[in-house]
Design a protein that fits this description.
302 residues; disordered C terminus; Phosphatase 2c, domain 1; alpha+beta; single chain; 10 strands
């Protein structure tokens, strides 16, 4: 089994700059979507910092003599520890940047990441916030992540809430994000992958504009993953494009299948074009080769 992927990000129709970022790291079968927030374009910085920090950590841990910056949890697999630690490093870097820069004070970002293990035939998923991961399998779609939002937290604590009570809750408040505090809780899961599965990672600019069945239909509409991503973005914009919108689609294939460059927006050693990206101040790290890092817009959430 192997994974192939493509990704697209777009500013949408009602924002003036893009605060979403995504990364595709083919040599580590790692896929990330981040949705930034914060004034003065700080959301751009937070989401880009998150994707680059996780990518840099995965590259660094390819060396056997690397010292891990956080405790290695023996209850978790190596893959889960790597994904968890990468996200924790991203959180720490955002907190530190926010503390030392008035311009970036209070910035944050959601993140959802998938790490595929061909040896274990598993997809490991980690997330913080309301960026989502879906799985499409055998003509059905399943939301793999739970939004860390005020609405969901209320429903978890009080499932008996009436529709009227639910409607009174603010829908754009998230309760967990990178950069909120020094320590972050990351939700982790391991999914048994099958040939033919497709995993969709997206910011809420996509999931808030189109419903799950529409995502399912578009994922099944084309064998070309880049076309699927473009169709998802186009439909979100057709429905109003109220936020920046990002989609990364990962397909699990057998090793015998042939994959052309058209199936990925970034093949190893290539950097995909950024869509709707604004100039990002005070970020000096270069875009790493063999990864796609594409920066979200005026804060559309609390």
């Amino acid at each position: 089994m192997r994974a192939v992927a493509a990704g697209v990000t777009d500013v949408g129709l009602q924002r003036d700059h893009n605060e979403d970022s995504f990364a595709i790291l083919d040599d580590h079968t790692l896929y990330i979507v981040a949705d930034g927030m914060g004034g003065h374009r700080a959301g751009d910085v937070a989401s880009k910092l998150a994707t680059e920090a996780i990518v840099d950590f995965f590259r660094a841990t390819a060396a056997e003599d690397f010292t891990w910056p956080f405790h290695f949890d023996s209850r978790l697999s190596e893959e889960e520890n790597r994904l968890l630690t990468g996200i924790k490093i991203a959180n720490r870097q955002i907190v530190e940047r926010s503390a030392r820069s008035r311009e970036h004070h209070g910035m944050g970002t959601t993140v959802v990441g998938c790490l595929f293990s061909s040896r274990k035939k598993k997809m490991y998923i980690g997330h913080v916030g309301d960026s989502r991961a879906y799985r499409v399998r055998d003509g059905q779609i399943k939301q793999m992540t739970r939004d860390h939002s005020l609405v969901n937290d209320y429903l978890l604590a009080m499932p008996e809430l009436t529709e009227e009570q639910r409607s009174e809750l603010p829908k754009n408040v998230i309760t967990r994000a990178l950069g909120m505090q020094e320590h972050v809780a990351v939700d982790l899961q391991a999914d048994d992958a099958q040939v033919g599965d497709a995993y969709v990672l997206c910011s809420d600019g996509l999931s808030g504009m189109i419903d799950d069945d529409e995502i399912l239909d578009l994922v099944q509409s084309s064998a070309e993953l880049s076309d699927v991503c473009k169709k998802l973005i186009a439909l979100a914009n057709e429905h109003g494009g109220e936020d920046n919108v990002t989609a990364v689609v990962v397909r699990i294939e057998s090793n015998g299948e042939n994959v052309g460059l058209s199936d990925t927006l970034a093949a190893p050693g290539m950097v995909a074009p950024r869509v709707g990206q604004a100039s990002i101040p005070d970020v000096t790290a270069d875009t790493p080769p063999a990864a796609v890092v594409a920066p979200k817009a005026e804060p559309g959430r609390s």
